[in-house]
Every structure is written in structure tokens, then in C-alpha cells.
């Protein structure tokens, strides 16, 4: 319940899930619950009813893509910086966004690893979800703007133009 609601509460104690870092089942189930809870109910509806990515709303496409990008890029950065096990790095990448669990001792992480966690925490989950943060749909226009300006192209995603108002609101 705590994982799905991105609450981070545990009744285990100060070690949280560190003693269970080797349990693949516990890690995968907890990560799945955190991600599903962080997607938002509108996205879950699209997945359940429309079933095909190309039929999803623009909102759902952005949420799913940003979620995947944040999880993978966070895990890769943590692996490069912290040199931990892949399972631990993926777990921390998923949980840092809003859930607050841990399978490694955060106090023993380097400044670079903690910075990665802080960025993931700042971005957070998606609108309509059980998680916090500025939201993936706010970070998306900021990211697309940076890439578009670097390439000298117009703002667009999934063959749709991104309104300037959306970009201004995201940066604000």
C-alpha cells in the first residue's frame, strides 16, 4: 500500500529495505507498485482501455516516455557514479522520484549520487498520481525546449506542436 501510494512509510525500522536488497521479487514488486502509483489514473485508464501506444492521449505518451527515461537515465547515472548493483541502482532511481524507500545506505552515497537522487526527487511523478514533485509533464516541455533550441528546430513531440504557453508555464 505504501509503495503504490508513493508514501515511503515502512514498519521495518531505520534500515528500511536494505536487508532485502538481494530479494529480486521484493525489489521488482515494490518498483512496479511505485511506478504504477506514479503514472496517474488517466494513464492507467489509457493503458487498460486503449491498449496501444499510438492510441494513447498526448498526456499518456509524455508520462510513459518520461517515466521510462527518468528510470533508465537515473539508474545508469547511479551505476556510473556509485558502482552499485544494477538492481539497487534501478530501485533507487524508481523510489527517489517520490516513494522514499531505500535498498542501499543513502548516507554512504557520494555527492554525485545524491545529486542524481535530488534531481529525480524534484521532478517526481505524474499528474493525477499518488506521487509528488514538479511532475513529468512539466519537466517534458523544459527538456524538449532544450533539445529543440540545441538543434534549431521547432518545439514538437509525437508529431504535435508544443504550444509556447505550455513551455512558459513549465519554466515558470
Topology diagram in text:
Blueprint: H1 24-39, H2 41-49, H3 58-82, H4 86-96, H5 111-123, H6 136-151, E1 156-157, E2 160-161, H7 164-171
Antiparallel strand pairs: 1-2
Structure explained in plain terms:
- It contains seven helices and two strands.
- The protein has helices at 24-39, 41-49, 58-82, 86-96, 111-123, 136-151, 164-171, and strands at 156-157, 160-161.
- Strands 1-2 form a two-stranded antiparallel ribbon.
- A hairpin with a 2-residue loop joins β1 (156-157) and β2.
- 33% of the residues are buried.
Question: Which descriptors apply to this entry?
Answer:
2% strand, 7 helices, mainly alpha, 172 residues
Summarize the structure.
The protein has 172 residues and is an all-alpha fold. The protein is built from 7 helices and 2 strands, in the order ααααααββα.
Number of helices: 7
Radius of gyration: 17 Å
Provide the spatial order of strands within the biggest beta sheet. Answer: 1-2
Element order: H for helix, E for strand? HHHHHHEEH
Helix content: 55-70%
Which outline best applies? globular
